[in-house]
Design brief:
This protein has 437 residues and is an alpha+beta fold. The protein has 14 helices and 23 strands. A hairpin with a 2-residue loop joins β1 and β2. It starts with 20 loop residues before the first helix and ends with a helix. 41% of the residues are buried. The structure holds 5'-O-(N-(L-cysteinyl)-sulfamoyl)adenosine. The site of 5'-O-(N-(L-cysteinyl)-sulfamoyl)adenosine has 21 residues, from β8, β13, β16 and α10.
Length: 437
């Protein structure tokens, strides 16, 4: 993509309404635009990141046999009357009436809808376990939408649901999801810590929140230091036999947030205690038969006896993660995207767009990178070098390939790593080899 043609309205000024760094940087980099309080349009650069995050989430859900569906955003109120949540949910729920005077709502979550869908066709123990998920926009009329996409009113969530024959099987589904979340966040370059949590309006007996570390996080975290340096993304995990030991490794260690913290346990940990701030990027729940009972999700067991299925639900804040990753990965000059979610792999900077030789060299590199399948943002605009460097640092692509007339006279271009700041002069061929290797 050429910057001269790209719809990327960057801002030079720091927007005054943005209180936290990710919100400021997303606005300055032209990733999003506010439509109304807590509701945003995603511009091309922001949408690329959102889609990359979505794809990692999708791959890790598919990897544990969770099947993708897509349920609507608008739901009939009657479903929620059946579960009893229509009145319970309160003013956070956006209620709508259609032309036939039927009560509808914009879904804040989908437990009712998926349970009804399951109940309509699944009849026997052979139909379980089932894991289903979708990635869909939600609406919650938050009292205080703030921090940009971090606490929006409209936001993108991955929500998955498990259906099992009994509590033991349901626990296995829960553990599967627990471990898959550890991998999901790690692939995005994040350290996520699972913490025992309150179940809130979703309800249930067991629940964990996943928090990523960021100085600007809304929650205060305290945990055993060992939880911070576990690595799972590249490890082959057997999603049957490895589950329990991995989950135990986490749940046996102290980890708590806000009102769940325990001063006595923290004192006992001494030097092993770490306190930090965090952002909740996921939340999983085991709630047994809370919804299946009300909505008739029943299967026959091996003896032909009817049993109500055991359920859990599993959320990831996909749009919140865009802000969360920036909170965890930036410096004073801008965003530092982890490779796995970066909107482009390389920013190619033409230092002298008016110059024939420089432009020819840039065009050549651009063509070759694209032919090799590398995603490139090519700054082909005329303008000051300083501005181009500042813009490239702001948008945070992992690599900058800098091409100017003086370097070319010596047969070199410059390759800069955004994260480390390291710069290297090398031939255009070597730079290509490094970026496509
Ligand atoms: N039904 C369950 C799990 S599928 C559920 O809704 N859980 S939740 O309420 O905890 O939301 C799941 C995740 O969505 C949260 O962990 C958070 O990362 C994200 N989320 C929740 N509210 C917002 C919001 N207002 N803005 C952005 N992300 C949000």
């Amino acid at each position: 993509m050429r910057s001269s043609q790209y719809f990327m309205p960057t801002l030079k000024e720091t927007p005054s309404e943005a209180e936290i760094v990710s919100h400021r940087l997303m606005l300055r980099a032209g990733m999003i635009r506010q439509s109304s309080a807590g509701i945003y349009s995603w511009l091309p650069m922001g949408l690329r990141v959102l889609k990359n995050i979505e794809q990692i989430v999708r791959e890790e859900q598919n990897a544990i046999g969770c099947q993708e569906v897509l349920m609507p955003t608008i739901q009939p109120a009657d479903l929620w009357r059946q579960s009893g949540r229509y009145d319970d949910y309160g003013p956070e729920m956006l209620r709508i009436r259609d032309r036939r005077d039927r009560d509808m709502l914009y879904g804040p979550t989908n437990e009712e809808q998926i349970t009804e869908m399951f109940a309509a066709s699944q009849r026997s123990y052979r139909d379980v376990p089932k894991l289903l998920y979708h990635i869909q926009w939600k609406f919650r009329d938050e009292i205080r939408p703030r921090f940009g996409v971090m606490r929006g009113r409209e936001f993108l969530m991955k929500d998955a649901y498990s259906f099992d024959l009994d509590a033991e099987a349901a626990r296995r589904s829960y553990n599967k999801m627990f471990v898959s979340y550890l991998r999901t966040y790690e692939r995005m370059g994040l350290t996520a810590i699972p913490m025992a949590a309150d179940t809130g309006p979703i309800g249930g007996d067991m629940s964990h929140e996943f928090l990523i570390l960021a100085e600007t996080g809304e929650s205060e975290i305290a945990c055993h230091k060992d939880l911070l340096d576990k690595r799972w993304a590249d490890r082959a995990i057997d999603f049957e036999s490895d589950l329990q030991p991995i989950v135990d490794e986490f749940t046996s260690q102290y980890a708590a947030t806000d009102e769940m913290r325990d001063p006595e346990q923290e004192k006992a940990l001494g030097g092993d205690l770490v306190t930090a701030r965090g952002i909740e990027v996921g939340h999983i729940f085991y709630f047994g038969t809370k919804y299946s009972e009300k909505l008739g999700a029943v299967v026959t067991d091996h003896d032909g006896k009817e049993v109500t299925v055991e359920m859990g639900s599993y959320g990831i804040g996909v749009s919140r993660l865009v802000g969360g990753i920036i909170e965890a990965s930036h410096d004073e000059n801008g965003i530092i995207w982890p490779e796995s979610v970066a909107p482009f792999h390389v920013g190619l900077i033409n230092l002298k767009a008016g110059d024939g030789k420089t432009t020819a060299a840039c065009d050549d590199l651009y063509g070759k990178l694209r032919a090799a399948g590398v995603e490139v943002l090519y700054d082909d605009r005329e303008g000051r070098a300083g501005q181009k460097f500042a813009d490239m640092d702001l948008i945070g692509l992992p690599w900058q390939l800098i091409v100017g007339p003086r370097g070319l006279d010596n047969g070199v271009v410059e390759l800069k790593n955004r994260a480390s700041g390291e710069r290297e002069e090398l031939s255009p061929e070597s730079a290509l080899a490094q970026l496509t290797g």
